[in-house]
Every structure is written in structure tokens, then in C-alpha cells.
């Protein structure tokens, strides 16, 4: 109980929270783009699994983490392409297709993992931590928070880039219009479908990257269902963050904090509070978040609605 | 799919001469399209097997046909079909009301917990009372868990997709807490509850086989839900809310009440499935009593076009595939998770066909 409150403990917790939030940050920011264009992708869980598996497989084969990350992104985008084809071109229900994508992701990765890797038991070398010149020397926090691998640091860059792209570029402007008022975009002579494809591919690419981080920057092994619900949590993060990339960064960090606390308590029980309470907390928080945000009309207006061209 | 069926029904009624023909072609497409979807999925499964050095024809020989060797394996298929039919038909009701209940897995666990609490508590009760009591407890537990999401949707506009997914995790975590803590069997080494009293067990259908009366309950309830959806005014109201809640309101139907009811019905069916797993097979509560029946049932309902009668067939088919996948793993070391890939492709094929079918109608 004593050491729960020391500065060193808090710093360690914050460092772990950032690491655990990283896959959520990528996936949630990706989903922000997708939902801003009106596409709700509940297939994120399966997409992240594909990213995690393909990233692992590519690094396993070549030894290059960079190649693994690219493979993760590519795998995510391939699933994104399937999702986009069925939801945008075929105009099928987004929830139904998302559910199918989740089944495919879990089934395919588990099938291939059991066929080729489960018996080897070998892992890959994960990305090494990098010091940041001035920040890593800060007392207490420097050691714990700024001793991360480059993938974790890159979440900040991705957040900034995503914000600029969404709010300060003509692509972003049109993208947001597609989600709110697809007909207006259509009348202005731009293709709603093309923007939606772009948004979904961007989103699933980032989800694939988030998945790949799990096997290349966090644990060094692929495990069946390694994402353990992060794809679903990312959906909740987006709502909680009110569809903003910066919001997604900080909400993910909050959820990362819950993960970190729960792991800490499993190792070091605190009084008679069962660790399951902290395990359930992110999910409970999510429900509270959608209850609080649910009534307000901040969601993109045409979210989940297929668009028929004129 | 809804639109075509609604339109078809109206046309057929107004032109009696064509009625028989319409019903026949309607039934034919209702069977042919899912069958084609399954065929495509099995073909993809065979390709996947062949590409990875397995025997592709196993998909047909083992997965689809190999499981019918003897009565015992048929009994095992029926055991797997029971929860799939129960949950699948319940989801038909929810989906018809456009409530996207992704939380059947959690509702199953809520029902299983409630059923276990009742099943371990009342000594000396007659089986005639005890078995129904356990079933009702399970159904109420699931209905409560589903009802939460329905209430939050209606009262706070909280997306039921998100809340049901989160409630899944909360149910699973709560179950794992209960069987490692308060409900743990004191003498057991593994996390499990005490054993249900024998009077609360579901009776077997045939001696020497595991299949119990749960399958009969599932079939009767599937039929009942079909009658409810298509032959009762309450079911009609629910379908109207699903097609157009605004129109429903003008017609004097309360959308909110129907949405919550639909969630309670589908949650109750999932909870009942949980109770049946406990009282019929495991006789104890474990951390993992369901291998994902709640998620698989989503595919069952979709393949059936959200029609409870169709869900009997698709639930049976998925049970065959699941048994077949297990057999394939035993016989030729093919990972049984292949069945998930096949289910995913079934869903994608069904939605592609459905879109292809109703597109001309929408243009007019």
C-alpha cells in the first residue's frame, strides 16, 4: 500500500500505461477517420489480429522489425479492402460485415498459427527502447516514461499528423463532409465511395499497425486472440474521444492506465479488492462513456448509413 | 432482405392466383441462397486446407458428412445445436427489431450464473419443480443482462453494439471472479462451482447418450418465436419498429418499449442456453462454459435471414460444422478454428447475395 503512492511507482505506472495504450491509440485514430467518413468498422478486432499475426510472421521470417510493421499495416489494409468492398460497393450492413471480419481474423490467424508456429515456440526480437536526449534524463519520470521503443513514441507523431490531416487539409474537410452530409459531397462532384474507401484503408492500416505493435513492440510472441478485445475497446475510445484524434490519444492513455493498474494489482494485491474489479473497469467506463456521450449529437450524422449515388 | 419479403408478402396476398407460385419460389430462394453461401464457404475452406498442405476434400468428407457415423455422434451434434438454435432464434427477434445484440455470449453467462445459483441451493425439491425453476432463473438472468443494453439504448441513446460488447466482458470477468471466489467449490483444485443438485439436472432423451431434453426445448421455443414474430400483433409491432421506428410511432406503437422487449427476449434465450449447458452437460459453472456460442449464433441468425424456423436449420448446420471441425482435428490435425473462417465466409456470401437480390427493388 505504501509504495503505491511513491513518485517512482506513479512514473512506472505512467510508462506502462503509455505502452499498453499504444495499440489502442493507433486503432482508435484509424477508426476516427473511418467513422468521420460514416463507416463504423466493428471488424477492428479481427483486423488488429491480422496485423499482429502478419507482423509477427514477417519478422519471424526476415528478422526485420520494420518489415514486420509494414506487413502488419498491409494485412490490416487487405482486411480493410474486404470490409470496404462489402460495405461501400455492395452496400451491405456494416455491423454484419464487421462481425464476419472478426470471425475471419480470429479463425485465419489461429489456423495459421497452429499450423506453422505453435510448435516452434520461438519468439522474435522486439523493438528495443530508445533514449530521448533530454527527456530521458528527467528525475523519476525520465527513466520510467521515456524509455520506450520508437513505436510507442511514434503515437505522438501519428496523433499530430492525424489532427493536421483531419482538420487542416482539404482531404480532411471533404472526409468530414462525407460523414455528415454525403449528398453535399456527391453534388460537389466528388466521389463519396472513393473517400470512404480511403478512410477505411487508412483506418485499417493503422489498426494493423496497432496489432503489429502487440507482437513486435510489446510481447515477442503471437498468441491466439492476442488483441483480447482491444479492437472493441478502440471503438469505445472513439466515442469517448468524441471523434477527435487528440481525444483518442488521451482516452487511450486513460484505458492504458486501467490495464497497467490491473496488471500491477494481479502481481501485488491491494487489501481485499479483487483484481477483477480493475479488469472490468475499462469496460464499465466504456458503458458510462457511451451513456454520457450517447445522447449528444456529436457523432457523424450518416454514421453506419450506406450511400446511394445520384 | 426485409424489404423483399415484405413486398413479396403483400403482392402474393393481392394476387391470389400467384400465391402458391410465389410461396414456392420464395421458399426455393430462401433455401438455395444459404445453401450456395455454405457451398462457397466450404470451397474456400478446402482451398485454405490445400494451400497449407492438408487434404482439401476433408471439408466435405469429414466436416460435412463424416460426423454422421453413429447415433452417438448425432447426439453430440444435437448437444451443440441446442444453444445455437436457442440463441440464434432469440437473435432473430432482436435483429428484426434492428437491435444489434452482439452480447449473447455475456447473456449466456449471466443465465448460467443465475441457473447455478438456483441449482445448488434448494435441497429436496421435486425435479418437476426444480428443472423449470433453473430454466426460468437462467432465462431471467439473460433477459436482465440483455435488458440493460436495451434500456441504455432507449433511455440514453447509448449504442447497443458497444454496450452489449462491453457487457460480454463484464459477464465473463464476473463469472471468473465468482468461480474463483464466492461460488468456488471448496474442495476443488480448479476454479469451478459446487455441483448442481441432481434433481435440477435436465433428463436425458435416450439412455446411454448425452443428448438431453434441451434440444426439444430449443425446437419448441424456435417454433413459438416464429409464431410470435409472424402471427402475433406484438411480434408485428416489433418488426415494424425494426423497419421504421418513426412510422411505428405514428401507428401508435411505442418503439422504446419494443426495443427493450426485443433485447430481453434475445437475452432470455441466451440465458436459457446457458442454463441448459449447466443443467444438461457440465452440472457445474466453469470460467469457460461456452466456446463462443453467443458469437456463432449471430451467424446462425443471419444465415437464416432472421427467421426463427430458418435458424433451426442453420443452427443444425453450424453444429455439424463444429463437430466436423473437431473430428478433423482428431483425424488429421487440422486446427478446428477453421470453422470460424468458414462461418465468416458464410456471412459475407449471404450479405453479398442479399444485396444482389434486393437492389433492383430499391431503385424503383
UniProtKB/TrEMBL annotation, chain A:
The subcellular location is: Cell membrane
User: Any idea what this protein is called?
Assistant: ABC transporter permease
**Membrane-spanning parts:** 37-60, 67-88, 94-113, 151-175, 195-219, 231-260, 280-299
Main subcellular location: membrane
InterPro entries given in the database record: ABC_transp_permease
Q: Return any one Pfam family short name.
A: BPD_transp_2
A Gene Ontology term for the protein's cellular component: plasma membrane
* Keywords for this protein: Cell membrane, Membrane, Transmembrane, Transmembrane helix
Under Gene Ontology molecular function, one entry of this record is: transmembrane transporter activity
Q: What membrane topology term does the record carry?
A: Multi-pass membrane protein
| Coiled-coil residues | none
Origin organism of this chain? Answer: Paracoccus methylarcula
From TrEMBL, chain B:
User: Known InterPro entries for this protein?
Assistant: ABC_transp_permease
Q: Sorted alphabetically, which keywords does the UniProt record give?
A: Cell membrane, Membrane, Transmembrane, Transmembrane helix
Compartments annotated for it: namely: Cell membrane
Has keyword Transmembrane helix?
A: yes
Q: How does it sit in the membrane?
A: Multi-pass membrane protein
Asked if the keyword rRNA-binding belongs to this entry, the reply reads no
Q: What would be an example GO MF term here? A: transmembrane transporter activity
Cellular component GO terms, alphabetical: plasma membrane
Parts of the chain that traverse the membrane: 23-49, 77-95, 102-122, 128-149, 161-180, 200-229, 259-281, 337-356
**Could you tell me which Pfam families the record lists for this protein?**
BPD_transp_2
Instruction: Classify the main location.
Output: membrane
The molecule here is called ABC transporter permease
Amino acid at each position: 500500500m505504501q509504495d503505491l503512492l511513491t513518485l517512482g511507482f506513479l512514473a512506472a505506472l505512467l510508462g506502462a500505461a503509455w505502452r499498453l495504450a499504444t495499440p489502442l491509440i493507433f486503432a482508435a485514430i484509424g477508426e476516427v477517420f473511418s467513422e468521420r467518413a460514416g463507416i463504423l468498422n466493428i471488424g477492428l478486432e479481427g483486423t488488429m489480429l491480422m496485423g499482429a499475426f502478419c507482423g509477427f510472421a514477417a519478422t519471424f521470417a526476415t528478422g526485420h522489425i520494420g518489415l514486420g510493421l509494414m506487413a502488419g499495416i498491409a494485412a490490416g489494409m487487405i482486411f480493410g479492402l474486404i470490409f470496404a468492398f462489402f460495405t461501400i460497393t455492395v452496400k451491405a450492413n456494416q455491423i454484419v460485415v464487421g462481425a464476419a471480419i472478426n470471425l475471419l481474423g480470429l479463425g485465419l490467424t489461429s489456423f495459421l498459427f497452429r499450423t506453422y508456429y505453435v510448435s516452434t515456440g520461438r519468439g522474435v526480437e522486439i523493438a528495443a527502447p530508445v533514449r530521448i536526449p533530454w527527456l530521458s534524463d528527467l528525475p523519476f519520470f525520465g527513466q520510467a516514461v521515456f524509455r520506450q521503443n520508437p513505436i510507442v513514441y511514434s503515437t505522438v507523431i501519428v496523433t499530430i499528423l492525424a489532427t493536421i490531416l483531419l482538420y487542416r487539409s482539404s482531404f480532411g474537410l471533404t472526409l468530414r463532409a462525407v460523414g455528415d452530409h454525403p449528398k453535399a459531397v456527391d453534388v460537389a462532384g466528388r466521389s463519396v465511395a472513393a473517400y470512404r474507401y480511403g478512410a477505411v484503408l487508412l483506418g485499417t492500416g493503422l489498426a494493423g499497425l496497432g496489432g503489429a505493435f502487440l507482437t513486435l513492440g510489446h510481447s515477442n510472441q503471437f498468441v491466439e486472440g492476442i488483441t483480447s478485445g482491444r479492437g472493441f475497446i478502440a471503438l469505445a475510445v472513439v466515442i469517448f474521444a468524441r471523434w477527435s484524434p487528440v481525444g483518442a490519444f488521451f482516452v487511450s492513455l486513460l484505458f492504458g492506465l486501467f490495464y497497467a493498474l490491473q496488471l500491477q494489482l494481479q502481481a501485488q494485491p491491494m487489501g481485499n479488492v479483487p483484481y477483477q474489479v480493475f479488469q472490468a473497469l475499462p469496460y464499465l467506463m466504456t458503458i458510462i462513456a457511451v451513456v454520457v456521450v450517447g445522447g449528444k449529437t456529436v457523432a457523424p450524422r450518416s454514421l453506419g448509413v450506406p450511400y446511394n449515388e445520384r | 432482405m426485409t424489404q423483399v419479403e415484405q413486398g413479396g408478402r403483400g403482392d402474393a396476398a393481392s394476387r391470389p392466383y400467384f400465391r402458391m407460385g410465389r410461396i414456392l419460389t420464395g421458399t426455393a430462394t430462401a433455401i438455395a441462397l444459404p445453401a450456395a453461401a455454405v457451398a462457397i464457404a466450404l470451397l474456400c475452406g478446402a482451398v485454405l486446407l490445400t494451400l497449407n498442405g492438408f487434404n482439401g476434400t476433408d471439408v466435405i468428407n469429414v466436416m460435412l458428412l463424416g460426423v454422421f457415423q453413429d447415433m452417438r455422434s448425432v447426439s453430440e451434434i444435437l448437444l451443440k445445436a441446442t444453444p445455437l438454435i436457442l440463441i440464434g432464434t432469440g437473435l432473430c427477434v432482436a435483429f428484426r427489431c434492428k437491435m444489434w445484440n452482439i452480447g449473447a455470449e455475456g447473456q449466456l453467462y449471466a443465465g448460467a450464473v443465475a441457473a447455478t445459483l438456483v441449482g445448488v441451493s434448494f435441497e429436496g425439491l421435486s425435479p418437476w419443480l426444480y428443472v423449470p425453476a433453473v430454466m426460468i432463473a437462467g432465462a431471467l438472468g439473460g433477459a436482465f443482462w440483455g435488458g440493460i443494453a436495451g434500456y441504455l439504448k432507449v433511455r440514453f441513446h447509448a449504442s447497443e453494439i458497444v454496450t452489449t460488447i462491453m457487457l460480454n466482458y463484464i459477464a465473463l470477468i464476473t463469472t471468473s471472479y465468482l468461480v474463483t471466489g464466492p461460488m468456488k467449490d471448496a474442495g476443488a483444485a480448479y476454479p469451478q462451482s459446487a455441483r448442481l443438485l441432481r434433481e435440477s439436472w435436465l433428463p436425458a432423451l435416450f439412455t446411454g447418450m448425452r443428448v438431453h431434453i434441451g434440444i426439444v426445448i430449443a425446437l419448441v421455443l424456435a417454433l413459438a418465436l416464429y409464431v410470435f414474430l409472424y402471427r402475433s400483433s406484438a411480434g408485428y409491432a416489433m418488426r415494424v419498429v425494426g423497419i421504421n421506428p418513426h412510422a411505428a410511432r405514428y401507428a401508435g406503437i411505442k418503439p422504446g418499449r419494443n426495443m427493450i422487449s426485443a433485447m430481453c427476449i434475445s437475452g432470455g434465450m441466451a440465458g436459457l442456453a446457458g442454463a441448459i449447458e449447466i443443467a444438461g452437460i457440465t452440472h457445474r459453472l466453469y470460467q469457460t462454459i461456452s466456446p463462443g456460442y453467443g458469437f456463432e449464433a449471430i451467424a446462425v441468425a443471419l444465415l437464416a435471414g432472421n427467421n426463427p424456423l430458418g435458424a433451426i436449420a442453420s443452427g443444425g448446420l453450424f453444429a455439424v460444422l463444429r463437430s466436423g471441425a473437431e473430428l478433423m482435428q482428431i483425424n488429421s490435425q487440422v486446427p478446428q478454428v477453421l470453422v470460424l473462417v468458414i462461418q465468416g465466409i458464410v456471412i459475407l456470401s449471404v450479405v453479398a447475395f442479399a444485396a444482389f437480390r434486393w437492389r433492383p427493388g430499391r431503385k424503383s
